[in-house]
Each structure stands twice: as structure tokens, then as C-alpha cells.
Amino acid sequence: MRPQADNNWRLAPIAADAPLDIRFETAPGEKADAFIRSHTQYPMQPAGSDTIGFAIWKMDLRQK
Description:
Elements: E1 22-26, H1 30-39, E2 44-49, E3 55-59
Antiparallel strand pairs: 1-3, 2-3
């Protein structure tokens, strides 16, 4: 099976005036980075890695 991004779900925007610190972990590496950058629907930026090597990304879910 080959999973694909088909946009069949989404995260709800959050009404907030202040920046929110929403993070998630994913596989490290250029392939994962490229996938995130090409399929994201919200502003996202890399935020380093955890102690065992997973990549950490920050996501901005504030309503626009």
C-alpha cells in the first residue's frame, strides 16, 4: 500500500490573537521535508529534532 495525501481531512483553524505553539513529530530527512512543504495547507516551519532523531515541525493554525 502506498499512502497518498488526498486532503480528505483537515485541522480546524483556531481563533487566537497570539502565536500558538503547535508542534508535531515526523520522520527526519529531505524526503519528509519535501513532502510537508509541497502538501501543507497551513504555514509550517521546521523546529529541530527530538532526542531520538524525529523531526519537529511547528504549525500555525490561527484563523486568517
